[in-house]
Write a structure and sequence with these properties.
The protein has about 290 residues and is of the alpha+beta class. The chain has six helices and eleven strands. The protein folds into two domains: about 110 residues, Alpha-Beta Complex (Aspartate Aminotransferase, domain 1); about 120 residues, Alpha-Beta Complex (Aspartate Aminotransferase, domain 1). The protein is globular, with a radius of gyration of 20 Å.
Length: about 290
Amino acid sequence: MAKSASRASKPRKSDAPSPPKAGAEPASRLIDQRIRDLGGWRGETLARMRALILDADPEMTEEWKWSTPVWSHHGIVCTGEAYTRVVKLTFARGARTPDPKRLFNSSLEGHTRRAIDIREGENVAAGAFKALVKAAVAQNGPPAKARPGASEKRPVKLLSGGNPRIAKADGDAPVQAYIAAMPGWKRDIGRRLDALIVRNVPHVRKAVKWSSPFYGIEGQGWFLGIHTFTHYVKVAFFRGAALRPVPPGASKGKDTRYVDIREGDTLDEAQMARWVKQAAALPGWAP
């Protein structure tokens, strides 16, 4: 858990390269780039906290404002800033957000915001932090009711086997939309896989192609894909034949190997993490 003592001095701005500028790039790609630019313990810390935020609330939206990562759900939940000595997570309505584990340790005097300063070597408890994120989302409340006649968001169509139909797009948002639409027990598997991949490959690139989430490395292609079937969730390692041990599911292609996860199966996260790290280090698949 991060230290609870408040620091009187304001943290100095990071001496890392300037944050990427917003433009046509999706916010998730800009956040990926920010993590890569930071590198070291700050990049690892920001990547870990980002994964916990997205795991806590699958409907969270990533944005890029003020040259800073922003996470929103019915309004801003928190921002992620990097300074020379701390990674700071500022909660927009932190002053009224319940914090039973006393994670907030900065900006304690204000009437609106609260922050968590994380220094090198410190580790915020995952469970307590995700509970704090959920409490912060609850403070934003539900969205305003739409005016009569206003268009409503249509439910995601499920294709054959219950696979969500999501339009082709780059970034984290379409992947989270896919996971949120996965039926029943499969949704939890999707969330756990996504969080595991982000945790072990902080600079991962995401997209949805052919109604399936894809994970890759910028400039190297795609190393993993996920697809929903009636009785299982299929994880495809596109260079799986080169992994050790080789994933058990065979493919028509010589390179691809599969892992099928069925209801009630125990997900071996340690083995999956080893495969993900190996796969991310290999040249990926470029369709």
